[in-house]
Amino acid sequence: MSELLQILLSFSERAGEIARSIRREPKLFSLLVEEKGETEKNQRFTHDFKTLADVLIQEALRHHIKTMIPSLEDYVQGEESAEFTNTLGEKITVKICETEKETANLLAKVLDGNAEAAELLAAVVHSDITLQLETELAPKIPELPINNLGIWIDPIDSTGEYVNGKSGVCQGKVYKSGLPCVTVLIGIYDRVSGLPVGGVVNQPFGVFDEESQRWRGKAYWGVSHSGVNVHNIQVSSPSSETENKVVVISSSEGVSFQEMLKKKFDVVHATGAGYKLLSVALGHAVAYICSKNSTFRWDTAAPHGILSAEGGGVVKYKEILKRHLSQEPSREELQALQVNYHKPNTASPIWCNEGGFIAYRSPSIIPVILDCLKDT
Ligand code: 2IP
Ligand code: CA
Questions:
Q1: Which residues have CB under 6 Å of ligand 1?
Q2: Is the pLDDT of residue 34 over 50?
Q3: Which of 49, 124, 196, 237 has its CA 20 to 30 A from that of 331?
Q4: What's the pTM value of the predicted model, to 2 decimals?
């Protein structure tokens, strides 16, 4: 049983609850959204949003790790900067304080003195929400070497869908957009090899409960360490790899790339890098292909950990294309092409997934994809 995984799983649920409670109160929600600073802007978005929920979740994890596993504190990296500007133009560094009261006072500054909202948020951040690992799986999880590990967090992936708040549109089993595409991503990697060791993906808006008229979360995890793979994913149909022809991609991919894939696959545009990776892990799609520099290590680390535990992975797209492989690559070949999490790129943006990637559950799909794309 891994104490770290238990801590991160519980934390992901707390993060999900922070995300849900902010959305539940529309007045609070509108207060919390501010436009991202120019320098932080994602290449493709004209309007990208940083929410206080994002920053709060990230800093709450940092605080939590510091308390529970102090030796890991310096190895938690995330997407967001902790700086938040309120409507008075004051820059405030969001952090979780020792007491709920102190956190509420700090948040009140961010919220232009709205004490009620600040108290509500501080209460969720300091609440003790837990989510237990499945009792039948917990004993199978290997102990992880804490001193060699690093953590990547994307507190809220698919911020656009989080802000829009629509319930979502499905194509087959894949949501193309909407709140189910929002994920909290916490990935664990080995600081020496850079390879994923495990991950937790929490979908704060996984299911809408008609009776309570509230969203409930879903949490997925996987661990792959020293030859032991454990995960809580239940793939509905084991033969889906051959029947399923769905490949998920970003709507920002070029037309000719999409046309090539359509020769062999049903191409579905879905929002959220984390969600597309989760769709592959769940067997709702056979692969997620990203041909550009449009994602970051914090987007892929957590689901990469789950895919590894399932025997799949996330390989570098441009590099695998260059290999002209006509057969299923060997385990070693695939291992050498996995996206890593410890080395920044030499050019900016330093943590983007340079050259794109292919995420898969089953290595047998790789030659089929490469055959489709051989003329790119
Ligand atoms: C985004 C988000 C976008 C994704 C982009 C990510 O992260 O996942 O949806 O674009 O690559 O960086 P697309 O949906 O077109 O794949 P965030 O929402 O955290 O900025
Ligand atoms: Ca993201």
A1: 42, 79, 154, 157-159, 250-252, 271-273, 294-296, 299
A2: no
A3: 237
A4: 0.92
